[in-house]
Amino acid sequence: MIEFIGLCTRCGEKIFCRNGFLDGILFNKNLICFSCAELEEENEDETRLS
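Given the sequence above, the corresponding structure tokens read:
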């Protein structure tokens, strides 16, 4: 079963729940797709190394 949950707050991509699993992440009460979440993680890693 696939259910539309909402849009990524960063890029606007549609996020779905697929068989009970969210096709993205909830970050600071915002839905974010996996692609944007990876970019966010890379940015955090670069900030820590600086």
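The longest helix spans residues 34-49. Try to locate this feature in the token string yourself.
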